[in-house]
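Training component of the fellowship. As part of building independent skills, the fellow (R.M.) carried out the full modelling exercise for a liganded target. The chosen ligand was magnesium ion. The inputs are recorded below so that the supervisory panel can assess the work.
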Amino acid sequence: MEFEHIPTVPTADEILDRSFRRAAKKMKEKTNKDRANEEFVRAVGAAIHDRLVYIIRGFPEFDQIPRFYREMADILFGMDRIKQSLGAVGWAAKHTKMVGNQLAVQSRKSDDTTIVRKRTVARLASMVHQIDKDLRFLNEVRNVLRKLPHVEDACTIVIAGYPNVGKSSFIRQVSSAVPEVASYPFTTKGIIVGHRKLGRERIQFVDTPGILDRPAEQRNAIEKQALSAMINVADIVLFILDPSEHCGYPMEVQLNLLGEVKEMIDVPLVVVANKSDLQVMEGYLSMSTEKGEGIEEVLAAILSHKPAVTKNRPAPSPPETQV
Ligand SMILES: Nc1nc2c(ncn2[C@@H]2O[C@H](COP(=O)(O)OP(=O)(O)OP(=O)(O)O)[C@@H](O)[C@H]2O)c(=O)[nH]1
Ligand SMILES: [Mg+2]
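Fellow's submitted model of the complex:
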């Protein structure tokens, strides 16, 4: 997956601490005090530069990664903010090296090289502290993005619908995924992937958070993740309704959302009414994930649409050990 190998992003103090230690080691290699100070000044600028460049290189080129992952990063953190922070780190990398080199030249000409060394430490520390909030933000981005699930190069069924209708209960029944199931809306807050063997093939189910029928600009980050999965990674969408309305939402709004989803996607859509143990709805496939009834029929309906060639997926990712 695109984000899995991003290394931890250190804080400003951690960067400074390690860079000062590296420069101090270099300094000890020189016997002459002035040469040692000059060496320290040059080495500390270079050490900070290298660490900052390493941080930037740890992040993928967001313009080149699959759209789904790019959208996830954007929904969760804002692409502009991520790019701004990476830009700030790039700025600091460039300037710390420049300042280190400039002050090393000054040190050569100076009568008191110790003063120049101290000035260097102060200036570089201040520059790196200026980007401390960017470093902390990037580390938070890293911690969240690296936990996003793999969406593999396999036939992908995205499960969607209103909150609390039984999406997670369904994916638990049919795949390796074990998302939390609870009797309140928005239990699922992110994308969850589960797998199922189908002969020699593996198919993949994506559980998504619930979506409300409301204008796009009012949707929150949790709902947006579900929409992005439907649009970007689905080969087939399974839309779950709850005609019992035990989910807390009337059928009218659930059907409005269904209409919207139909407009939004260009892949096959299977609609199923869940909670048939409470209420059956004529005209739709029905199941009860609670009682385990109707599941096989729903799977058969999904698989009747299984494309020979899958589409819309992110680039292949390494094989997973799970299942
Ligand atoms: N009676 C009945 N209850 C069900 C059935 N399927 C799910 N439930 C219950 O409905 C509630 C919601 O189930 P979830 O699977 O968490 O629903 P979800 O759609 O994933 O919910 P969000 O993640 O909040 O969007 C839980 O209390 C389940 O036990 C069913 O077939 N019959
Ligand atoms: Mg759920």
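The panel noted the following from the submitted structure. Residues 12-145 form a domain with the Four Helix Bundle (Hemerythrin (Met), subunit A) fold (CATH 1.20.120.1190). The longest strand covers residues 192-198.
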